[in-house]
Each structure stands twice: as structure tokens, then as C-alpha cells.
Amino acid sequence: MSAKSDLIKLEELLNSLTDYFHEFADIEIYNQKNNQLNSIEFSIKKLRSSNTPIPDDLRRLKIKLIHDLEEYKVAKDIKKTTVFKCKEFIELHRERRAKNNTLSQKELF
Strand, helix or coil at 25? Predict the structure, then answer.
């Protein structure tokens, strides 16, 4: 495979990751879901204190929100690692390019 095709594949992968991060690592969405979870927990607490059965839908929503918030944390970690690896890749590519340019210039003399 050529370097160009590898870079095109890398770009496609980065675009996919960007979409993933947008969906799962958006801080505004995280804050909204966290506020919803807090409201649900408050409602459940009130229902329990009044000996009222907790609706299954409310329980399911709580579980879903907890799951979504965990996904946010995972996405945040993946994003951090991915950005770090991309920076390493770019730096390595720059170093190789600079080295190749230096070698090419030496050949001229």
C-alpha cells in the first residue's frame, strides 16, 4: 500500500471518530443527561418516601442515562488517547519528511 492510500484511510477513520465523539462526548449533551438523571433520582426518592411504586419506565430511563453517561466517559478517554496518537503520528511524519528533505538536499550537492 502507498503512503497516500494509508493517509486516506486514516482520514476516513478520523472522520468516523469525529462523528462518534460528537455523538457521545458532547459536554452539553452530557450535562443535559446528568441533569435528567438527577431529576429522576430525586423523583424516585420522593416516590420511595411516599411508599409509591416506582414505574418501570422510570427505572429503565435511569439505567439508560447511567449507561449514556458512562459512554461519555469512555468516549472522552478514547478521544484523549486518539488525539495523543494522532499528534505522535503527525510529529513522526514531519520528522521523516524533514529527514527526507535533508537527504534530498545532500544529493543535490
Answer: coil
Q: What's the pLDDT tens digit per position in 14-63?
A: 778 777 777 666 788 899 999 999 999 999 999 999 999 999 999 999 99
User: Three cell numbers at 68?
Assistant: 449514556
Residue whose grid cell is 500500500: 1
Listed in sequence order, the residues at least 6 apart from 36 whose beta carbon sits closer than 8 Å to its beta carbon are 61, 65
Beta carbons within 8 Å of 79's beta carbon, 6+ residues apart: 17, 21, 25
**54 in helix, strand or coil?**
coil
C-alpha cell at 71: 459512554
- Secondary structure (3-state) at 75: helix
Rounded to whole angstroms, how far apart are CA atoms 67 and 3?
Answer: 39
Cell of 43: 423523583
Residues 6+ apart with CB under 8 A from 44: 54, 58, 62
Cell numbers 543535490: residue: 108
